[in-house]
Structure formats: C-alpha cells, structure tokens
Amino acid sequence: MLPPRTKQNRLEEVVGAILGGQQQIVSYAGASQYQDAEGIRTGASSCGLAALNCARVLFRTYEDTKVVSNFSPAGHTHRLLNGVLCQQTTEEITSICSSWPSDKHLEVDELLKLPIFKQSFENANVQYALTDYANLLSVLRDMRDAKGIPVAAILTRSPEIIVCVKIPINDNSDVFAVFDSHPRPAHPDGAAFIVNTSMESTATYLNNLLAIDPKILADPTMRWQAQLFGQFSSHIVLPNSSPLSPTGLEDILMESTTTTLRLQAELDNSRRHNEELTTENDRLKLQVAQLELDDEDTTILDHESVRTAYQSRHANGPPPWQASTSGSSISGPPVALARDSEPPSHSKHDIVSDLSEKLINQLQVQYQEEDRALAAERAALSAHETPTFQCQICFEDMRIDYLAQMDECKHSFCRDCLRSHVTSIISQRRYPILCPVCMADKNAPEPTQIGDTVLSTIGLTTENTELLRSLQIAPYSIALHCRKCKQTMFVDRKDHQESSTITCPLRGCNYVWCKNCERQIEIGGPQHSCDGSSELRHLMQERGWKACPGNFLSLNSAQARP
C-alpha cells in the first residue's frame, strides 16, 4: 500500500524495483470494483468492465507516453510506468464500475460489443484451456510474441475476470502488469496492479490466483461442475490500429444514443404491458369475489327454501288418519296424537331428497377443492424433483446433471460412459468419433458424429484433448520437423503436396530443405536438384570447367590444354 504522504517517492522506488526484476504490488485504499475512491458503492459484478477499461486506459497511456520524445530511454520507461501505476490511473479504471450497479454477471464477449471498447480494441483470438501453469504461460508467450506493441489478455475463470497487460519498455524487455479489481489478502484495501518483468513469475502468480483446489477436481460428486470451474478463457486484444478521430467519437455517441432510445422504448413497452396485466388482474379478482358472493347467496336461498317447505307441510293440519278417529272412544285430546305422530311418508321423502341433494352438492364441492389442492401439491413436488434419464451404455438411471446427449440422433449417455468410449476411440487414433448406439445399429442410415460441444462437457484429460485436436486437423494438415530449430509444426496438406521445397514457418528460423531428398537448400545458391546435376553445372560454369567428350568428365582449363 502506498502511504499518501510519500506516494511519489514510494512510486519511484517501486518502479526501480520492478525494473530490477522484483515483483511489486501497487494498491490504493478504497478504489475497487465494489466502491470508488469517494466510498460510493458500485456494482458487485463489474470486474469485466474494470478489466476491459484497464486495457483501454493502459493502451492510451502507452500511446500518450510515446508521443513525448524529449526523454532518454530510461526516462521514457520511468515516465511510462509512473503513468500506469499512479493513483489517478487506478481511479480512472475503477470509475466505470459505478455505471453498472446490478449484481448480474457481464460476459466479455458482450462487453466487447460496447461502442467504447469496440472502437478501442482489435480482437486477436480467444483461447479456452484448463487452469494450470503451462496453459497460462502459453498465453503470456503469445502476448510476448507481439513485439513493440502493448497486448492485453482478459482472463475469465468463472465467476471472476482479471486482465494481464504486456507493456514493452524497450526492444528486448517487457513488463507484465496484472490488474485485479477484487480486494485480496495481499491487497485487502482495494484493487491492485501486480507488476513483474518475468513471464514465469507472472504465470506463477496467475496460477496461484485462478487455480482451484485439486480436491474439488477429484470429488466424484462434482465431476463436471469442477471441470467447468477449472477452465479459463483468454480474450487477447490489441490496440486499434486506426486512432480515434472526431468522426469516430460521433459514431460512438450516435450508437450510444440509438441504443439508449431503443432500451427506453423497450422499458416503456414493459411498463405498459405491466399496467395492462395489473388492470386485468384486478378485474379478475373482482369477478372471483362476485362469484363467491353469488355462491353464498345461492346457498342461503337453498337453506331457506328447505326450511320453508318443511314448515308449510306441518302447518296444513292433522293428517287424514288422525281426523277419522275424532268420533271414537279413545280418550285424550287429538292434538296430542297429532304432535306425537310422524308426518306423512311422502312429505318426509321430499324433505330427505332435498337435503340429500344439498349434501351431495356440498360433498362434490369439497372433493373438487381437495382434488385441486392435491394437484397443486403434486405439481410443486414435481417442480422440485430432479429429472432423470437412462444411460444407453450402462442402462443406469442418472440425474439430468450427468446427461450428455447427441445433437442429431438424441441418444443419451452419462458423462462417465461417454468419456470412456471417446477415450478408447482416441487411443486407437480413430476419427471422427461416432455415437456408440448408432455404430451398433445396422439399420441406422448415417451414424451421428459426436460434436465439439458434447466433447467439451465430458471432462477429457489435457493429453486426450490435444490428441483429439491433432486427429481433427490430420485430414487437412501434415506434421513437419525442422532440423535447425528442432521444432514440429503442422502445415496445410494441399500446400505441402504442391510445393517441392519446404521453408520452416517459425519466426527467426527460415531453414529451407527439399521435400524429396530432405537436403538443405542454400538461399541464393544454385537451383537445387536431388542428384546434384544442377549444382555441378553451376560449379562448372563458375570455375570454367569443360566436359570431356568421351566420358563426360569435367576438366578444368589447365587439364584441357593439349
């Protein structure tokens, strides 16, 4: 951490230590992707914005320093590194994070389409590999091969994104600056530059930062998830060769304006649609409430009609059999007999029928409500249940997480079985790799080839992945070994067949040899022939030798005298 009171002096010491071969960490308190220098909270997932903005700012700093020509080489280097590592540069890099307050993760491919980055960079290539020291060192070597210009590698190991920038300081030396917008134990107070002149030390730092615990990779329950998190991507970007002109600035402003208008229109449409849905929802709620009131009114009316019918039947006087006994000798008031007697059978039957019908309706409504509740519960359980599939090699029921499905024939396999099949085919040096079910089916019109998308998800080892790539390019290329630089490279098979001489394509070698006899061909020398006749004729012409008429032996001018 640079103390504020000795910031400039300390920065000079840091630059001197960097040029002396030491790794240095430069960090300023408060400046990170989570908050700016003024302490205002920014987006929690803006590391991609910070990484690309760092590359843009450092490219511009390099060009601005190049314009100033009244410095010695050493002074130019110090001025360049001071401009890169000063607090103002760090604050400018992290200031863009405040423009993205959301926690949604931003992909590098989408960020490169933004006008400010599209006008600042030229995309070189994208690489995907396992996170280890060798692959990270390979990325740094590719950056070093671009001589005389700064190069940035946007490194993504989900969910984090950092950037490594190669800054040339002279014809033979480069500085590697890693910018990490996340606070770490080595720089807990904010973002930091980790600067080094050693490519190997930089690769070691990146490997320690990005690599995951080997125990997680060995966990059988997290096989494909660990393989996914163990991969990293590298987007190599170069400075835009055409400087940004006023017209280019107008284009950026125009594109940003149209994008803003388009997003505003989409937001207005979403709000309007939301208002319409809210209005419709309120209308349906009122309709449901009205239906419930109508149902309650109907129930009350049914109860009233049943009670009224029962009372009216009892108010019509005694039944006929009671009236016929009024003149008999039976003592006691007839009213008592009427009160103790039962109502007529047909009246009781009507009442029971009405009550039974009402009870049936209530039971039906209760059953329907219970059925709806059970259906909703089953749907909720189904939504939380992990679907399964049957592997067509081992015939085991597996969770959908382990699915590897063919694109065309739709045959499904678990990743372990398909990886064993692919590894076996690769070990036999066979390509293309076909679906095992299609291969066994004699009636299949054309077996499905296993695509790169499926191959990238089954967890092949690095060795098998490299062997697979060589098998993929074998029909279109041929391997050559240069005797001078001792390197092996692949060249286009058609070009190799059409050419009679071969030139080593590696930079700085330029070794030339004959394809047929494999002898070296001297550049600028006589025309090559495999039997040496062309070289002999050139030598005879150069030294004035003549051919003997009898046996065609070559004689020099002294031997040819009589």
From TrEMBL:
The residues forming a coiled coil are 260-294
- Stretch list, region Disordered: 311-349
What keywords sit in the KW lines?
Coiled coil, Metal-binding, Repeat, Transferase, Ubl conjugation pathway, Zinc, Zinc-finger
UniProt xrefs under PROSITE patterns: TRIAD, ZF_RING_1, ZF_RING_2
Q: Which residue windows does the record flag with biased composition (Polar residues)? A: 322-331
A Pfam family name for this chain? Answer: zf-C3HC4
* RING-type domain span: 387-562, 391-438
Output compositional bias ranges, type Basic and acidic residues. 339-349
* UniProt cross-references to InterPro entries, sorted A to Z: E3_UB_ligase_RBR (IPR031127), TRIAD_supradom (IPR044066), Znf_C3HC4_RING-type (IPR018957), Znf_RING (IPR001841), Znf_RING/FYVE/PHD (IPR013083), Znf_RING_CS (IPR017907)
Q: Which GO terms describe its biological process?
A: protein ubiquitination
Q: Which GO terms describe its molecular function?
A: ubiquitin-protein transferase activity; zinc ion binding
UniProt protein name: RING-type domain-containing protein
